[in-house]
Amino acid sequence: MNQAKSRDTEIFKGIALFTPGGDLIYCIDPGKQGRWHLHLCAGLQEILNLLEPPHFLVPCYTATIDRWLDPQTQQVQTYAEAYPLVLRYQALLNAVFQTDVVWQAAPVAEGLCDAILLNTYRATFPQLWEENDLVVRFERSQPESLSRQHPQTPYVLHLFVAGHSATTERILQSLRQVLEQFHYPYTLKVIDVTKHPEQAEIDQVSATPTLVKVSPKPMRRLVGDLDNVERLLQMLNSPEV
């Protein structure tokens, strides 16, 4: 009986979310039921007194660990991966999750963790670039205010541009402000058509800038005027199928 209980405590899924300054908020979910990313963003917003939840940290500043029981060997197996921006924190990750494993580098799609895009957040979230010596375990018993966020599935967006320029940076800033203002959780991938024309062909993009809503379905495209808030919201709020 005691042995089974001990084994159960070894089986969990853990998610860690870092800030650019190196602070950490994480959770351990033995039931592997929770969708924790939005809650961790809300936790950082509450703790650091941010004006908005920092959804842009996901996935670029994320690490995950999964421990499960192999039904054939009855041994606990572990897989841990971290995005390149936080892979250097392996020792800290092993400490908070009480493991001793080598963390694998999570694959990053081209343009997903674009440095120019991430830097556009610095003026809005200066606290995230500071080092506060913060290591916080997020629990389900945290105050409900941490969970009052947009309930929908995060959007997957592709932004097609022709090179990285001042115009590209302006578009990124404008787009980010709209998404954050209306509390839309999202992942934004920036695709340079001069380097990846094949991706433009796959998504049927013939002009830049073009914003493509990949999911939730249906797929939608917005070409040209990305400063038009009404058109952008109409695209984002198109009914799911």
From TrEMBL:
Gene Ontology terms describing biological process = rhythmic process
* KaiB domain: residues covered: 158-238
Query: Which Gene3D superfamilies did the record assign?
Result: Glutaredoxin
The record's annotation in PANTHER family points to: CIRCADIAN CLOCK PROTEIN KAIB2, KAIB-LIKE PROTEIN 1
Q: What is this protein called?
A: Circadian clock protein KaiB
Q: Which organism is it from?
A: Chroogloeocystis siderophila 5.2 s.c.1
